[in-house]
Amino acid sequence: MEETADPTGDELLLMLSALANPHRLRIVATLAAGRNYVSRLAREMGMSRPLLHMHLQRLEAAGLVSGHHEISEDGKAMRYIEVTPFALRLTPQQIAVAARSLSGPTDEGAR
């Protein structure tokens, strides 16, 4: 297994923001058991497909899951989702490194 680099500050914020939602946390937990297609995942999660799609978009934007289309034997296009291998290491030192790479405003001018 190859070692992944620590996320940048912006990547870390995206990942933590995506995982801070209980629905998205449950989606990742469900997909940890193996890939699934969207319709079945929606049924298993007990949520509508539009709501699931919204959560999947946030998880994909954060790089936590990925999806691709496959054609079933009966010719239906099915979108499969799977967890993208990731590991988060949250130590004060790792957060300090990530914070230095953040884009956007800082708190320095707020005083």
Automatic annotation (TrEMBL):
Keyword match rRNA processing: no
Domain HTH arsR-type residue range list: 14-91
Entry's Gene Ontology molecular function annotations: DNA binding; DNA-binding transcription factor activity
A Pfam family the protein falls into: HTH_5
Signal peptide: none
Keywords: DNA-binding, Transcription, Transcription regulation
Keyword Transcription: yes
Protein name: Winged helix-turn-helix transcriptional regulator
Organism: Cryptosporangium phraense
Lineage: Bacteria, Bacillati, Actinomycetota, Actinomycetes, Cryptosporangiales
